[in-house]
Design goal:
The structure is a single chain. With 445 residues, this protein is α+β, with helices and mostly antiparallel strands. The chain is built from 13 helices and 23 strands. Helix 1 packs across helix 13 and helix 8 packs across helix 9. The longest helix is centred in the C-terminal third of the chain and has 17 residues. It binds FE2/S2 (inorganic) cluster and fe (ii) ion. FE2/S2 (inorganic) cluster (FES) binds next to loops.
Length: 445
């Protein structure tokens, strides 16, 4: 039996940060994570645009707990535990839909889109006592539910810090997503759900892992090269075509990373504004609306993680990922291409083609990543060499606070690394595991 503190070796003064393999496959640790990381704090639920009209709903989870988010008759969004007060059956069984009345499939109790109980089958004949009538038969609302610019978060615990405080400086990075259209962003139809035989934190880390890109994705890179050498009019032009200029301003910087309070991180790369990017058609109006610096940042490659379960990858195309842990060694991913509402048909087509190239189980990169997670999970069964060495790159380059690039959008991270093309910082994982330990220890006391 491991205690959470046994699994992180964090000695910054000595230049040491190591993670124990058991963090990825110990069932006892997984149970604690469900309780204290997922049930004990803010978790991303979805976008408000997933329930635009009255009575629209979508389902998700907080850890293993089923959640139902609905827009009621008056237009207000509500988030509920997706379980019947009668005998506990899941009420909504599809990922999304529209209904003014949810009828439980087990004994037909019914609920409106505000979660109010509207009917108890054969109630009069049920010989209920008065105490039953005094009970509330409505669906249970989440103790905490809030929104930041269309990003919906909920918590099964009431005693969480305000959402704005949980997000902190990362709101400036969510703004770079939300501001891409005056109407906000949307999930593009064609979302994909898949599972892999590995721990959820392998996905958490991979989104921030610049080091694996040229090693794990040779098929994608080779095809991009072939297309460049002999252009094929039918193939999508690569997102990367005019990518990663070295910054003259910062002498050879190609990007880097930012870590924030509460476990959020960004891995990013400098990019030029190029017509290969679907957002190109908006480059001028965006600069006028949000300023040139924020606009320029929107065109940078950005992999953002909002701890513990939301990732927005704006590289190769644009993807929103929700991580759903199933067990210590099994994870479900829900992924969508995202795009600004109202973009032109040509830009949307380009975005989707670039997306299909790279993402999805049928794309050229996602299977490389999931196969690597499964290889790691198999390797983690060993305790012969228990401490992993994948957290040391960049420790000598990590600095407190922000830098000239974060200053451009008035953002103050807790730490930053400025990297050339080969540094590929690994210190941003420290933010995940420090937050992980903080919550797990709080849980244990
Ligand atoms: S469990 Fe829902 S009506 Fe019985
Ligand atoms: Fe990858």
């Amino acid at each position: 039996m491991y205690a959470p503190a046994d699994l992180i070796d964090d000695r910054p003064g000595e230049g040491v940060f190591r993670v124990h393999r058991a963090i990825f496959d110990d069932p006892g640790i997984f149970e604690l994570e469900m309780q204290h990381i997922f049930a004990g704090g803010w978790v991303f639920l979805g976008l408000s645009s997933q329930a635009r009209a009255a009575h629209d709903f979508f389902t998700t989870t907080i850890g293993r707990v089923p959640i139902l988010v609905m827009r009621d008759e008056s237009g207000a969004l509500g988030a509920f535990v997706n379980t019947c007060p009668h005998k506990g059956a899941r009420i909504a069984q599809t990922m999304q839909g529209n209904t003014a009345l949810h009828v439980c499939a087990y004994h037909s109790w019914s609920f409106d889109s505000a979660g109010r109980n509207k009917g108890i089958k054969w109630k009069k004949a049920g010989c209920y006592e008065e105490a039953f009538d005094k009970d509330c038969h409505d669906l249970a609302r989440l103790p905490a539910f809030d929104e930041y610019r269309g990003f919906l978060f909920g918590s099964l615990a009431a005693n969480v810090m305000p959402l704005r405080e949980h997000l902190g400086e990362v709101t400036k990075l969510l703004d770079l997503v939300a501001d891409q259209s005056e109407e906000g962003i949307e999930l593009i139809p064609g979302g994909v759900v898949f599972t892999f035989e590995g721990n959820w934190k392998l996905q958490l880390e991979n989104c921030s892992d610049a080091y694996h890109f040229t090693s794990a994705h040779p098929s994608y890179l080779n095809i991009l090269k072939k297309r460049k050498d002999s252009p094929d009019a039918a193939a999508p032009r690569s997102f990367w075509e005019n990518s990663q200029p070295w910054s003259e301003e910062a002498k050879g910087v190609a990007g880097g990373s930012y870590s924030f309070a509460n476990g959020h991180v960004l891995n990013w790369g400098l990019m030029e504004i190029a017509d290969t990017m679907p957002l190109f058609e908006r480059a001028g109006p965006l600069a006028a609306r949000i300023g040139e610096e924020a606009r320029n940042w929107m065109f940078n490659m950005r992999n953002l993680t909002i701890f513990p379960n939301l990732q927005i990858a704006e590289n190769a195309s644009s993807q929103l990922r929700v991580i759903r842990p199933l067990s210590a060694n099994r994870t479900e991913m829900r992924t969508w291409c995202i795009g600004p509402k109202g973009e032109s048909a040509a830009a949307r087509r380009q975005r989707i083609r670039q997306y299909e190239d790279f993402f999805n189980p049928s794309g050229m990169a996602t299977p490389d990543d999931t196969t690597s997670y499964e290889n790691c999970q198999r390797g983690h069964t060993s305790r012969v060499q228990p401490w992993l060495q994948g957290y040391g790159r960049g420790m000598g380059a990590s600095r407190e606070g922000g830098n000239i690039f974060s200053d451009k959008i008035g953002m103050t991270p807790a730490r930053n690394v400025l990297a050339d093309a080969q540094l590929c910082d690994e210190t941003l994982y420290h933010a995940y595991y420090r937050e992980w330990l903080r919550r797990m220890q709080k849980a244990c006391t």
